[in-house]
Specification:
The complex is a heterodimer.
Chain A (H helix, E strand, L loop, with lengths): L5 H25 L8 H20 L3 H26 L5 H26 L9 H20 L12 H25 L4 H11 L35 H8 L6 H5 L1 H4 L6 H13 L1 E2 L17 E2 L12 H5 L6 H5 L6 H16 L6 H11 L20 E2 H4 L1 E7 L7 H16 L4 E3 L9 H5 L3 H15 L3 E7 L2 H10 L12 E4 H10 L13 E3 L13 H9 L23 H4 L7 H11 L4 E4 L2 H8 L7 E4 H7 L3 H4 L1
Parallel strand pairs in A: 3-5, 4-5, 4-6, 6-7, 8-9, 9-10
Antiparallel strand pairs in A: 1-2
Chain B lengths: L6 E4 L2 E3 L6 E3 L1 H13 L4 E7 L5 H6 L5 E6 L6 H11 L4 E5 L11 H9 L3 E12 L2 E7 L5 E7 L2 E5 L11 H6 L1 E4 L8 H4 L21 H9 L15 H14 L5
Parallel strand pairs in B: 1-4, 1-6, 4-5, 5-11, 6-10, 7-10
Antiparallel strand pairs in B: 2-3, 7-8, 8-9
Classes of the chains: A mainly alpha, B alpha/beta.
């Protein structure tokens, strides 16, 4: 046969091209900043991370997870066997049959990919992605036919040179997509970059059921702060951007996108890719940032990102609710990237929008975002008869009051919680005026210098006293204390349990230290605060508390890890980027659709945001407030 | 605007009204902002005091490459060293706040500087519109958002009113990296101050509010009004002699001149 050499040559040729592409792509990532990664351990852990952690996220969409297992699994198996059977020419009918089986599996999967692409949801990118199912089908059919002689089903030489030529053309078409495209920026790039991203992930703690949500501290005092250019990202962050499959699950859950603010997490990640690879976003075929046309963004590895690649409004629209990160099947860290870029805007450019500058100035000068007198921090507790740590030096429980102390609505939550603690005879003390803002807002607004200053001073105060547990009603302070203060080399919180008040109260109820009457109001739903749920995994305690009152929570469609943000996180109410709708209004619609008369919340910020929605609307109450109204009288007497 | 104008903004250490902590002073920040707007390149920001004061980094964080410090102890007199500095600096426009937020806070410094240098003083500036041919067109801030345009010849000293553009956000990085030029100057001890006894001010009792306004518009006016001096008179068309006579009469009347 004259053309028998052609298919193996094509396979080999495309493999070499793929190899060259892989090296080029890796060099793009390597332009990023150094970050220590355990290469070998990462590569060894990669299969498990893929099969377990990543699959766990994909599994939320059963249709797609099965489709992907069939298509991806079939392809990987088939590709390995193709090398043996067709490139190295191993004569084995068993291998050939195995290859046929893998191709059939892949073909079935590809059919479902095709079916989904017939009428794709808006969150999916179109463009080259619409071509992918056809390439997958072509690949499986072509190699199926090509393998038939090797499996002994058809005699060698069937079809003659005409068939070989036709098959060669099809091989060229499909393998270009599958191999060449994998490393040169086609849709299959996600397999190559995704696998390495899993191996060298910046937060390996996330795998195996762990959680890693605290922001990484900025190094202060360098020639520049934060991320200005794509090459200022760590190399494995760049790799992470490249892993995106453009499935748009992030887009579907992003509250800012839904509100019509100029943010789309998927587009943001794609723009980061445009940035470090150079070029424009003209080829992007997904939903744009609301209100911003696609095709005008230009980027280069050493170009300032906010100079032409993305607008700073995009960065300031994020509420840091982490819904995109939670939902991303490739485990990309959108929030890290956004805060990294915000750090540059705030620490280097001094361009925090709207009230941002004023809030940061207040935090620096008065240790609270609204510029209240630090000496008035404990005024709310004038009638509460609370011990001050300054006087008692030690207590079982330290109540971290947070900046809710200055806000009259939040004070109602604080008082309710104090009343509950007194009812349970807890040995509690507060820091009083020694407490400072936790630094949450400063950090999310990109001012890591102010955050670190607050964190260190708070830790110094905490280290003076002894306590076993620290409890707060503010999930933002809770998150900082629990997950972010550990980076500053202090022993103040060593061996101390940091708890959110719902967790703490739930324990008291379980231990029988609080006597509560059954709740007889109407239907109640529960809103999961982002910083309690997604950031800290506490979904159960609030629900158990409500259940202990006999409340059967009418769950919203988006609850638990899929809870929709109230719009109050990440300094979003301060930077206040205009959109078409308010995030809090959308969340209240979620509440209303359950038919609930009351929405229980575990966060003063969520309370403020949801109560800001115009009436008539369901009542908003913190769980502590609901509990306190059900406190049995005899306990008090 | 010719970029050749040498602008000097004088800055002091402010004091936050709630926390009492050091901060970038409100009006001095505006003086730097105005200076940056006039000419970023030829702006010199000067502080007489402690070069180690961290608040100076907040001024530098507005985008200054350098900041000049005339070191002097807490009991030093800023006036003589500033006069020496300004005499030797070729400054054409000197901007200051109306009064400092800490220290004596008398608001006298710009006047004393103007007196010793023999320069005109333009009080409570809202904006400097143009500087050409050795003269500047300046908008003075008057009560209720009114403005008065005056033309003043260079060099001059201007105090910056709260009506001027707000100071831009200070950025940590540039502030940290700014170069501090610490000059070698002789400090002069403030002998007068050494004899004073300083005690905390008592808050003045608030005047009782008597609502006389009949309509909402009147109430709005009353709420937003700054105190207006009743006897003021704008003289535009009179001769120089008449204007001088009017000033002299006023000084006599106010018993400034006896």
């Amino acid at each position: 046969m004259i053309l028998d050499w052609l298919p193996p040559t094509l396979i080999g040729f495309l493999l070499v091209l793929a190899g060259i592409g892989a090296i080029r792509r890796m060099n793009l990532w390597r332009a990023g900043q150094a970050e220590k990664v355990n290469i070998l351990a990462g590569l060894l852990a990669m299969p498990k991370r893929y099969l377990h952690d990543l699959h766990h996220v994909v599994e939320r969409d059963k249709y797609m997870s099965r489709t992907h297992v069939a298509t991806g699994g079939g392809f990987v198996l088939a590709m390995v066997l193709v090398l043996f059977v067709h490139l190295f020419g191993v004569k084995s009918e068993i291998l050939a049959w195995a290859l046929l089986a893998a191709l059939v599996l892949m073909f079935c999967g590809a059919l479902f990919v095709y079916k989904r692409r017939m009428n794709p949801p808006s969150r999916l990118s179109k463009g080259p992605w619409m071509r992918l199912p056809k390439s997958l089908l072509t690949f499986s059919i072509t190699f199926f036919v090509l393998t038939l002689p090797a499996a002994g089903i058809l005699p060698e030489g069937t079809g003659g040179w005409v068939l070989t030529l036709v098959l060669s053309v099809l091989i060229l078409m499909s393998l270009s997509e599958m191999l060449f495209g994998m490393t040169w920026g086609g849709p299959m790039k996600h397999a190559f970059a995704g696998a390495l991203h899993l191996a060298f992930h910046r937060r390996p703690e996330r795998f195996g059921g762990g959680r890693s949500t605290g922001l990484k501290p900025a190094v202060l005092g360098e020639a520049s702060h934060g991320v200005a250019k794509p090459t200022d990202f760590k190399w494995n962050q760049l790799l992470g951007f490249d892993a995106c499959v453009q499935c748009g699950r992030c887009e579907a859950v992003c509250p800012a996108f839904a509100a019509g603010q100029p943010l789309n997490p998927k587009k943001l990640i794609q723009d980061m890719v445009v940035g470090f690879a150079g070029g424009t976003d003209a080829k992007y075929a997904g939903s744009p940032y609301p209100g911003v046309d696609v095709g005008n963004a230009k980027g280069a590895p050493d170009q300032i990102i906010t100079n032409g690649l993305i607008s700073s409004d995009t960065l300031w629209s994020c509420t840091t609710c982490r819904a995109c990160v939670e939902e991303c099947p490739m485990m990309i860290e959108h929030v890290d990237a956004i805060v990294d870029m915000r750090r540059f805007l705030t620490l280097e450019k001094g361009e925090t929008p709207n009230k941002g500058a004023q809030v940061l100035e207040n935090i620096i000068a008065t240790d609270n975002p609204n510029g209240y007198s630090p000496a008035s921090r404990t005024h709310w507790a004038a009638d509460q008869n609370l011990n001050l740590m300054k006087d008692v030096k030690q207590a079982d429980v330290l109540f971290w009051v947070s900046d809710g102390a200055f806000d009259m609505r939040s004070q109602r939550i604080l008082r309710a919680f104090v009343k509950l603690m007194k009812a349970a005879n807890i040995d509690v003390a507060i820091l009083g005026d020694e407490e400072l803002d936790s630094g949450d807002v400063a950090r999310r607004l990109g001012d890591d210098a102010a955050f670190q200053s607050l964190a260190k001073r708070n830790l110094a105060t905490l280290s003076k006293y002894s306590f076993k547990t620290i409890v707060t009603t503010d999930p933002h302070a809770f998150h900082c204390l629990k997950n972010e203060y550990g980076d500053f080399g202090s022993d103040a919180l060593k061996g101390v349990e940091v708890l959110h008040h719902t967790t703490f109260l739930n324990r008291l109820v379980k231990e029988g230290r609080l006597q509560l009457d059954t709740f007889k109001g109407g239907k109640v739903t529960y809103h999961d605060p982002c910083y309690l749920g997604r950031y800290n995994g506490e979904y159960d305690a609030p629900r158990e508390l409500l259940a202990s009152l006999g409340i059967d929570v009418a769950e919203m469609e988006r609850s638990g890890y899929r809870s929709r943000c109230c719009g109050g996180g990440g300094g979003a109410p301060i930077t206040d980027i205009p959109g078409e709708r308010r995030i809090a209004d959308m969340r209240m619609e979620d509440v209303v659709s359950t038919g609930a008369e009351m929405v229980a919340v575990g966060c003063q910020q969520c309370t403020a945001m949801l109560e800001g929605v115009v009436e008539p609307r369901p009542v908003v109450k913190d769980i502590a407030e609901i509990l306190v109204s059900q406190l049995s009288e005899e306990v008090n007497s | 605007m010719p970029p050749k104008v040498n602008v000097v903004s004088l800055v002091s250490i402010g004091r936050h009204p709630q926390s009492g902590r050091s901060r970038r002073a409100e009006q001095d920040g505006r003086a730097v902002e105005l200076g940056l707007k006039l000419s970023k390149k030829s702006l010199t920001v000067v502080h007489a005091g402690d070069a180690q004061e961290p608040v100076l980094r907040q001024y530098a964080g507005m985008g200054l490459d350098s900041l000049t410090v005339l070191p002097q102890p807490a009991d030093g007199d800023a006036l003589p060293i500033l006069v020496d500095f300004l005499k030797s600096s070729k400054a054409q426009v000197v901007l200051t706040g109306v009064r400092a937020e800490s220290g004596e806070s008398s608001g006298m410094l710009p006047y004393l500087l103007a007196e010793q240098l023999g320069w005109p003083l333009v009080p409570r500036v809202a904006e400097i519109l143009t500087i050409k041919q050795g003269a500047a067109e300046v908008l003075l801030a008057l009560p209720r958002g009114q403005r008065r345009s005056v033309i003043v010849s260079l060099p001059f000293i201007a105090t910056v009113d709260n009506a001027a553009a707000e100071a831009r956000q200070t950025a940590f990085g540039p502030g940290l990296r700014a170069d501090f030029k610490v000059l070698d100057v002789n400090s002069v001890k403030d002998e007068a101050m050494a004899t004073w006894q300083i005690s905390a001010a008592k808050p003045r009792p608030k005047r009782l509010k008597v609502v006389k306004a009949k309509t909402a518009a009147d109430r709005m006016k009353a709420a937003t009004a700054k105190p207006v001096g009743g006897g003021g008179k704008v003289m535009k068309n009179e001769t120089a002699a008449e204007k001088a006579q009017a000033i002299f009469d006023l000084l006599l009347e106010e018993k400034v001149v006896r």
